[in-house]
Amino acid sequence: MDALLNLFTTLYNLLLVVVGFGLVIFIHEMGHFLTARWAKIRVFAFALGFGPAVVSFRKGMGWRRGSSEPEYIKLLTAAEDLRGEAREQARADLSGKVSPTEYRLNALPFGGYVKMLGQHDLHPEGTNAATPPDSYLAKPIWKRMVVISGGVVMNILLALAIFMLVFFVGLETEPAKVGRAQAGTPAAQVLPDNAEQLGITRPGLQPGDIVLAVNGRTPDDFNDVVMAAAMSGPGEMVSLRIERPGITEPLRFAIEPERDQFTNLFSIGIEPAMTLTIPEQYAQSPEDWRAVADSFGLVGVEPGMRVVSVNGDTTIESFGDLLDAAQESEGRPLELVFDDNTGAQQAVTITPAPSLMRDDTNPDPSVVSPIQHLLGLVPVMTVAELAPGSRGYEQGLRTGDIFAQLGSIEFPSTDEGISEIQRHPGKPIEVVVLRASDNGELHEVAFTANVDGEGRIGFNAGTPARAPAFVTLTPRTLRGIKPGSPDYTPAALDAITRPGSRILAVAGAPVSTFADIRAALIAATAESHASGAHGAQAATVSLDIQPPLPPQPDGSRLVETVSLTIDAEQLARLHALGWNLPIGSWLFAPESFTLRATGPIDAIRMGINRTQRMMAMTYLTIARLVQGTVKIDNLKGPVGIAHLGTQVASRGYIWLIFFMGLISVNLAVINFLPLPIADGGQFLMLLYEGIRGRPLPIPVQNAITAAGLLLLVSVFLLVTYNDVSNLFGG
Q: Do the Cβ atoms of 191 and 711 come closer than 8 Å?
């Protein structure tokens, strides 16, 4: 039932987006239509969409299924077949009773056009002595310029009106406040310019930092900060002025963005501030919420509840505070108390998980294949808490199962396992797991699982840091997720020769999970790491490993002892590892505020300001495309706009209206670019005609227009391909 409800909601949102986009196109074409009528140009068609007409209306003929143009042409032909006064009378009667303009809705909803006498987008015509007085070509150049510009002007006016309305009503959005800086990103590594003056020694932006200015301008919301980084040029710095609680004056940061390999946009690596409140909308799918909550140990916690204390500390205010508590816990359990605002409380205990190293295994620098590991020791994928009766349980999986075989991969890592499952949508996949019996002995269980159409078997992978100490093969080469990171050879490369090997001890200390391995490695290398401050020093640690071989005749299993040599750089990364919460920021609602004008005059000011900024941002995006800092796959075509629009619509009607304002601005800018088939290209040709006193030669106009059409179709196909690939995870 929930899935059916979500489908209907998505379809409804999609319908709203299509209607809204159609309205933006309608306003654009209305600009051309009204200015053409003002210039007394005969208009043959006012159309929304392209392709064949679905329905049409013509004054004097009424509504028609399809186009009324064939009937109208028959009437014109019949009048022209007459002679002398009869022809003139027939023409006059037809002109007085039937309009030459057909209003039509075409089959393909994206786009539209106004068809005028003497002006055809794909077949421009020159002037001649027989040009009718109500033809586009018979009008003065300045009037034709007004007609060409009419659509762009109307889109700018529409955007202005939309932004004024939105800011008068109020737009709920995220404040320009830092939730956290992602580890290893520019925002996590830089010190403020005035750090020494203010006694700041801890690098990076911190949770709770408020952005007072970005590149000298006061941001309206968090998105302004993100876009400033995304739109930065090669080598450009993003300048931030930050207010930090407890610091007497603003901090000044200059941060050079780096390309995020997941979004392919420039980023400084910050996330918005999150509250500690579970969103109410999770209650719309109670079964899904209960399954998620129970899997994280949040038994009894319901949507709408808020964390009010952590280990008795009631001063916490945001998810960033919760992250700080996890880091300071050093792995000790945290008691969280949730409150539902009526006095009812629910206490739960969660245990922070030790973080592992995270690197890229893909040799292609344009594709990221992340993996979690410890010096190249990669945990085998396991099954997290699995409730009886769940889909994965019914297929044969059990909590704690260790994947010995999944499809064609032996002892897959979590990332490898998920990828292998996703390669079998709607197909069966062979599974072999290691499962503990009642006496604790592991035995193999083999079965065939069915992968659904979305590439799932029906389980959540276990947390790698808590996985049993079984390892898959070490990648030969790793590199940091950060773009431009150099390749390096992981320390464990020669230590692990068989996938499925089990680590029994590290430097003589018994281990059973990856958390144990991490703790033992840190303890065994503590002295070497401490001496690194006076000179880099490598460390060597012994590992007792049990290969995945059959038992010996006496029932015992072979155990090998190998050495792990850790260079100074990998040793430093090992000791810098912190602690992760088992729950992510996505579980909580983002901090928000209502961006609202103080009155009508302020709404006008904010509307004008936002329209100007969005126009400048669109032009800047084009410039960044040329420079290469923004990639073509970041652009959206009709499919991407529709998909993004449905997501925006789910935030409420006011966000959908705001989104249409953005579309209207973009349409205005794109249409007035100096491209042959766009309004801007037509305007340039009129400018040429005004300067030279004659239009471009017909063959040149046709060639330019054909080239523009080819460019438009090519870009359309490319962005649509990208949209569809992104939509289906390609």
A: no
